[in-house]
Amino acid sequence: MSRIPALVEAARGGDPRALARLITLVENDDEGLPELAALLAPHTGTAQVIGLTGSPGVGKSTTTNELVRALRARGHRVGVLAVDPSSPFTGGAILGDRVRMQDHATDTGVYIRSMSARGHLGGLAAATPQAVRVLEGAGCDLVLVETVGVGQAEVEVASLADTTLVLLAPGMGDAIQAVKAGILEIADVFVVNKADRDGADATYRDIQGMIALGERGPGQWRPPVLRAVAAKGEGIDDILAAIDKHRSWLESGGELRRRREARAAAEVEAIALAALRERIGSLRSGTALPALACAVADGSLDPYAAAGQLLASLQLPASN
Amino acid sequence: MSRIPALVEAARGGDPRALARLITLVENDDEGLPELAALLAPHTGTAQVIGLTGSPGVGKSTTTNELVRALRARGHRVGVLAVDPSSPFTGGAILGDRVRMQDHATDTGVYIRSMSARGHLGGLAAATPQAVRVLEGAGCDLVLVETVGVGQAEVEVASLADTTLVLLAPGMGDAIQAVKAGILEIADVFVVNKADRDGADATYRDIQGMIALGERGPGQWRPPVLRAVAAKGEGIDDILAAIDKHRSWLESGGELRRRREARAAAEVEAIALAALRERIGSLRSGTALPALACAVADGSLDPYAAAGQLLASLQLPASN
Description:
Two copies of one chain form a homodimer. The longest helix of chain A has 28 residues, at 255-282. Chain A has helices spanning 4-12, 16-27, 33-40, 60-73, 91-98, 123-137, 152-158, 174-181, 183-186, 200-213, 236-252, 255-282, 288-298, 303-313, and strands spanning 48-53, 78-84, 110-116, 142-147, 163-168, 189-192, 225-227. Chain A has a domain at 43-253: P-loop containing nucleotide triphosphate hydrolases (Rossmann fold, 3-Layer(aba) Sandwich). In chain A, helix 13 packs antiparallel against helix 14. By secondary structure, chain A is an alpha/beta fold. Chain A has a seven-stranded parallel sheet, sandwiched between helices. The two termini of chain A are 43 Å apart. At the A-B interface, helix 3, helix 6, helix 12, helix 13 and helix 14 of A face helix 3, helix 6, helix 12, helix 13 and helix 14 of B.
């Protein structure tokens, strides 16, 4: 008998260990995920999701920590998901950072969790929304998703948030990196952290200049650039105010609904593609793909014809 | 009527413009690619494929240029494919480098071409082997595939070569980068280029040290580390000798065949997956996915159930 209904029940009752086990199931792409998703669906769809990203060293953990403190003071139940899109090697670093979060260790209104998605065939695009749903199902009305680094994977993760914060720090060349990685397109709020350091003004001007270059129609959101010194708790209220303002903008124009539907579509696609990929992958251990590969290597069959035969063995209708 | 048979005929007759048009078809994932692949298959499967990769600035173009000169002197017909796995922004840089290849502009036994795969749904994994086949079908018995940068995409491209050369240069921290990117696993020959510069010995020792750390069974290939100053033509003969030696090793143990079958399998999979992805993508413009996404955003349907319905609309048999 599946243990998942009992785990969901316990997580909804506030049991942090049940919650942890559920997120581990998500990480590992457990075969029970469809059941879990079905159980969670009625309890999801309303939590506010805040993304937070930036290069290593800009102060993401400190900022998250201070934001959690301020959100708790407002009465929110807060979930934090620290997502590691990169190699196994950096897993330790993230877990290390988590130690600084122990400020909240005795607060049952906060749940903090690192997550990788190495075991998830659908990758972060499929795994992260599931984990957010677990936190939401367990009663968090606000979920902070923190990602490490500035790259394609971070953009992917950030794109599932209602509001995405991008942290910068002086003298790190972040502005250029942000443009390269497409961060500029997904940022709703920029924060120049460590604003008491040399070079903060230059970073501020750089990013303002890049925002000014972007074309925006009337009624479109223009990302504000804030200054903060998270380690001293400075600027946190301004960040929350910017999040609130962005939230109002999202709600007023129907953008919140559009974003959530786009996210849901991307998630459904990722799950469907993963299922298809898994089926194709399962053919590797069969005889079809090796035989086709042999014929292609010989030149006796071309790769498109081989791919057609492979798809036929999946009982798919003819392509195009 | 399809123009592809005539283009293939012309390319096989040595017409460089026909060859260029065929590679453009590959770049753009033209709907005629299955036909092209079928026409080329009988003429492919024997060319030697050499991969060449390394960070920007290590001297890839210069080295390629000198290798082409030496290979021509041996009587090979040589194709060069400079693949750009990254953003559109670097396209110009590659084309600029190509100017230096004009040494060979009047030599009809050499065909040099930059390629991106931005338009190809199957990405580089599907596009690059097709382009190699075009060059092979046009009579090149040796194809050099040069990639810019050291990253996951480069590893992917390099993995389609029989022999992969990794270029390093003094003082660029390449050794660490190489390990991070998984280059160490795919390199068959290391070349420390610009070996007359300060720091070349340190780079040489670094990479030797990393190779020594790798575990190798008896009969396994241990990548040699060579020194070269490509700009002066120094070390090119050593590189060719190492390629020959690696080629003998590949042939003696059946590894060449194994590599080519593994490559063909990956290629067939990439094409099959791209076809499936395209079909799922085509549902975006239909009514199924938006309706499912709406239900998921509402919480009235969970994403796994939605993915199942999406797959059902593709007429796929039930998963698992």
